[in-house]
Amino acid sequence: MKTLTEADIARIRGEFPILNTSTVKGHPLVYLDNANTSQKPQCVIDALAHYYEQYNANVHRGLYELSELATAAYEGARLRAAQFLNANNECEIIFVKGTTEAINLVAQSYARPLLKAGDEVLITALEHHSNIVPWQLVCEQTGATLRVAPINLQGEVIAEEYEKCLSEKTKIVAMAHISNALGTVNPIANMIAKAHAVGAVTVIDGAQAAPHTPIDVSALNCDFYAFSSHKTYGPTGIGILYGKKALLEAMPPYQGGGEMIQSVTFEKTIYQGLPYKFEAGTQHIEGAIGLKVALDYITHIGFDAINHHEHELLLYATQLAHEHKLRIIGEAKEKASMLSFTLDNIHAHDAATILDHYGVAVRAGHHCAMPVMQFFQVPATLRASFAFYNTKAEIDILFHALGKVREIFK
To answer: Maximum Cα–Cα distance for the chain, whole Å?
Structure first.
């Protein structure tokens, strides 16, 4: 399936219960906050219920059938994530709470023992707070310096300036695959290659990329890659950290406790090998199981079909935004399916509150990317972000409701 027909979209929407049963203040739900969290198909919901109903048990530890079933499903999810990312080995897949924890794990377990005064960590001006604050913390802890590659008025990292920021001092380059605030798609293959040319290790925030585009960590040759389940049609509270095996093996554990140990005495602890030394305590078992089903689901639809449909929605919404004289924030040449904009002199929070009265759910605020807002000199934006289950008719409802907002504030 390379394109999605109207019948396909209708069938897909029928597989998401909330899109068919939820109403907001008497209106059908128009859910356009997918960059924040995506809705869940029935198959994912069923997988969670099935685990609790049929084989709820802890993994790896029980010598009985329920535990063996849970372990097989949990480890099957790890294998599926490795396939989804085209990792070389499933031991390179670490289950974490989400992208935020993944980046913090790398910052504290990889970067903190490595960095020293005079070293540099490079990020871009597009980053989510989760790819800023962990690096600020580790720089404060080690004496390293945080550098920032600037962006232009289209919301793109300036390639020449990025290259100027790279030097033999650069030990880590951390960047988003796709900006959560603007939708900018970074040319990360090229950016990774430039970072490796100076000997830097690369950390990719893939939270916004995983639902929209195929990811091949082997082809990208990135050192670390992270994404979250809840933006990828799976459960909340779980995500994936991919790391090259040699790097992960050399890193100390991030947390201590049960499951990540091989043996413990009061004198010495011997840790498990990969991936378990990074998975202390009871993990989010049902989350991993649900994530596997979500990855299967979007793979079945196909990224060609997803990309085509979401790009059509973006083009349609962008055209209407120009016709309605909205100020679009971020118009990169390569852009994912989100529209970030301001509406006259109306604060985004006020506009979003009124939109909710028409059943329209969009994000309003700084999107955990305050430096981006500061660069564009706006306090906040409205952000409509599209998924493959959205329709042009829903975008029409959004712009009708935006017209009502203008009427109220006229």
So the answer is: 73
Q: Cα separations (Å) of 254 from 21, 77, 103, 243, 248?
A: 42, 22, 11, 14, 11
Kindly give the interhelix angle for 392-409 and 348-356, rounded to the nearest 10 degrees.
Answer: 120
Residue 250 exposure: Cα atoms within 13 Å on the Cβ side: 11
User: How far apart are alpha carbons 307 and 11 in whole angstroms?
Assistant: 18
For residue range 127-156, list pLDDT tens digits in order. 999 999 999 999 999 999 999 999 999 999
Residue of 43, 91, 139, 368 marked active site: 368
Pairing label, strands 170-176, 224-228? unpaired
CA–CA dist 154, 171 (Å, integer): 28
Domain residue limits, the chain: 6-31+302-409, 46-299
Residue 117, judged by CB atoms within 10 A of its CB (0-12, 13-18, 19+), counts as exposed
- Phi, psi (5° rounding) for residue 175? -155, 155
> Which residues sit opposite 203 in a β-bridge?
174, 224
CATH C-level class of 46-299: alpha beta
- How many CB atoms within 10 Å of residue 175? 24
pTM: 0.97
Any idea which architecture 6-31+302-409 has in CATH?
A: Alpha-Beta Complex (3.90)
Query: Cβ(98)–Cβ(237) under 8 Å?
Result: yes
* Measured distance CA(355)–CA(357) in Å, rounded: 5
222 is catalytic: no
Distance CA 226, CA 247 (A): 15
Q: Which amino acid is at 369?
A: A
Q: Confidence band (pLDDT; 50, 70, 90) for 21?
A: confident
Residue 340 backbone phi and psi in degrees, to 5: -110, 130
Strand 93-96 to 239-243 pairing: antiparallel
Distance CA(329)–CA(343), nearest Å, equals 11
pLDDT at 410: 83
- pLDDT tens digits, residue range 274-315? 999 999 999 999 999 999 999 999 999 999 999 999 999 999
DSSP assignment, residue 167? S
Q: So what's the pLDDT on residue 3?
A: 86
Query: CA-CA distance, 68 to 138, in Å (whole number)?
Result: 39
